[in-house]
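Summary for the steering committee. The consortium agreed at its last meeting that each partner would contribute one worked example illustrating the joint modelling workflow. Our contribution is presented below. We chose a case with several input lines so that the handling of multiple components could be demonstrated. No manual editing was applied between input and output; the record is shown as generated.
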Amino acid sequence: MSSESSKKRKPKVIRSDGAPAEGKRNRSDTEQEGKYYSEEAEVDLRDPGRDYELYKYTCQELQRLMAEIQDLKSRGGKDVAIEIEERRIQSCVHFMTLKKLNRLAHIRLKKGRDQTHEKVDAYHLQLQNLLYEVMHLQKEITKCLEFKSKHEEIDLVSLEEFYKEAPPDISKAEVTMGDPHQQTLARLDWELEQRKRLAEKYRECLSNKEKILKEIEVKKEYLSSLQPRLNSIMQASLPVQEYLFMPFDQAHKQYETARHLPPPLYVLFVQATAYGQACDKTLSVAIEGSVDEAKALFKPPEDSQDDESDSDAEEEQTTKRRRPTLGVQLDDKRKEMLKRHPLSVMLDLKCKDDSVLHLTFYYLMNLNIMTVKAKVTTAMELITPISAGDLLSPDSVLSCLYPGDHGKKTPNPANQYQFDKVGILTLSDYVLELGHPYLWVQKLGGLHFPKEQPQQTVIADHSLSASHMETTMKLLKTRVQSRLALHKQFASLEHGIVPVTSDCQYLFPAKVVSRLVKWVTVAHEDYMELHFTKDIVDAGLAGDTNLYYMALIERGTAKLQAAVVLNPGYSSIPPVFQLCLNWKGEKTNSNDDNIRAMEGEVNVCYKELCGPWPSHQLLTNQLQRLCVLLDVYLETESHDDSVEGPKEFPQEKMCLRLFRGPSRMKPFKYNHPQGFFSHR
Amino acid sequence: MERAVPLAVPLGQTEVFQALQRLHMTIFSQSVSPCGKFLAAGNNYGQIAIFSLSSALSSEAKEESKKPVVTFQVLHFSLAHDGPVYSMVSTDRHLLSAGDGEVKAWLWAEMLKKGCKELWRRQPPYRTSLEVPEINALLLVPKENSLILAGGDCQLHTMDLETGTFTRVLRGHTDYIHCLALRERSPEVLSGGEDGAVRLWDLRTAKEVQTIEVYKHEECSRPHNGRWIGCLATDSDWMVCGGGPALTLWHLRSSTPTTIFPIRAPQKHVTFYQDLILSAGQGRCVNQWQLSGELKAQVPGSSPGLLSLSLNQQPAAPECKVLTAAGNSCRVDVFTNLGYRAFSLSF
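What follows is the complete predicted structure of the assembly.
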């Protein structure tokens, strides 16, 4: 057995012994506290190394004693027992020592463990502190990293500009080129510098403005002081104006009145005045009607409200009486709807022959359309032929100034809905009273209505009015002149005289035998029912806006009926003739090629009959041409050999040939200076 | 409410003028292109319009047959002559048109490409006259490749199409000539004129061989209508002519009228078609006659009077085999078979 193994075994023994010993000690603890503490203190006093020596020695002693006992026992003998007893006592003492040492070792262990614990705690605490410190530092670092400087929000001039403009003591190119931080600093410096300069400038400007304001103030004062002086001068100049026929003041007054015009009439007034000044000195523009009434329209509604409530109350009383007469209320409503603005614009268009076209433009406030009433006055009193009844009547004189513009229908699509409410079927029942709402009138007033789509906001537009002014004015003049010319021609035509003027004489031969015997108006319906006008009706040339006439030309037994469609656009649109000859049977364009050719001569070749511009003599010339054509037709009619007796119409006209071409045309073309007839 | 008047659309100046021009238009002449797919028509304003028969007759066009006027296609429209275009014929490449004094040639191929430049123009040697005489009839003589022109100067001029020179003049008529017809077998030409005579010319000798003064025969004379012969057609020994006198079928060798067709209106165009005679004139109808004089059918057209008929028998375009008729209107009626007017082409 080695010493080591014994050592190992011993602590076991000690431990197994120790446990009860401890229990004993615990018991003794309570009894002998002082002793325990002394042992505790004793540990500190003793040297563990010496204790270890002591332990070694004790163990050796015990081994020796055990060996001696064993030796003695094996020898046997009486004294042996004593010696063994002695040896036992000695070993007991040694055991005691061992016990003591064991206890001490325990205490020391405990102490050592306690001491280590303390140290670990301290270290742990230190670790905690350090970790915390690390975390804090990390936070600080991220905070620093996230830091944004204010300068980043400032808009800086670009780098190139900076190096170009900044003075070198700020830019310091050699330093800042490589160092972006320095560079930024330098740029910020430059920015500051610039801003300082601008602030300086701003201050200067402000003071400048202040100065100018003061100047303005002074000048205003001067101007306001000027006004009364000017007024007095104006007042003084009035007699001079009157004396010199310079109606500046009147014009001024008119402009003052014009301010109260509704927008469309205002547009018309301005544009017409402008046109009159620029292009047509004979055009006179005036405003009629009561300004006060117009002003009243724009009064704040409180007065009228009072009135209304009053009248309402009255009405409540009266309605009981009036209830059965619902039609009266509807009538009032209609009247209200068709109400005109109290002001109207008068245009007087003077034509060359001193006849004047008076146009009065009205504005229907609730319908937002303009209407016009026309009147023609002439220099001389006119004898009104029966057939000219419609020519100059206010109702029709301006009809179809532009194609299809008959002025009987409201141009504003929204109106139809308004009419439905009050039971007006169509505006045409009221046009005589209100005037005609022609499309061109709306355009002159700058009103433009989109087709087929009611629209609430229709604004008066100057440019629209201006673009239509010139053409419309010219058309109006032409219309009046052509109507007057027609009027004159009709007066002669009714008496069977075809009034060919001297400058158109060359169009016809000197001797014309056929005579116009009748010139009458016919109704549209009657025209449509004539058997020889079907072609014209089918071609859409017989609208109800046209005027219709019937002419009868006679020569001997031959009677030529001519149905005439007079387009309101005469003379740019020619009158259209349809013929029916009664001579040896009835001949129309469907059974006689030459009748068809005669119609073509007046209808298609009308341009050579126009005469001098503006060709107002066209109708007369066409009728005279028809007379000539009839002469040619009758004189060249082939003579029937089988019939006895002389020809009814001997050939007097000089003709190169009688017939020509597959359809055996007669020589209808008149050649002026030579005076013969040839084929076209 | 506003009274609704149909067709009473308000018209402006140009529209009115155009409407009047159409209303007074007369289509004097027609000619089918050598390919058979196109039809040229000339009117009294000197305009020639080319209509595409093939597209107007195609099945796609028929779907819109409710509006027949729209189906036509005017390929070419130009002011060709100053005066009316009285007569037109087509050679295998050219369209020859004649009116006031001159004959003009146009290339079909170029016209279809809308090139409207005339190829050449020729004027026959007229004796002097104050008025330039018109050309009422053109006749191609394929055997000698020449063209015969006749009209206002009462003579027949023969023009060699190869060289464009006028080779001979046939004199004899005392008034202007309305119409010409070629006898297929012998080189003989018939001409009819205002003087009431039908003259038969031998082209080889350039002599008049026969004269029939129609108005002198009591059977067909109608003095109230005049003497003039307006139309003429021939088939071997038979000849049919009409105009002032009644439409009559003549046996040429015996110079006797065999059949007098009972129609009052003067006829302006007549032609043989198979065993029928087609004629048209004053009145709306195209008349179809049996040789015996019976009226087989009267097919109404859209014009109040007809001046020309054209049978498109070009073998190149069998689908366009139609009869077209034109006259005192701006429309050319198209008859897809003889008994039925399918639609009208319109200027």
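The longest strand of chain A covers residues 356-364. Residues 78-146 of chain A form the longest helix (69 residues).
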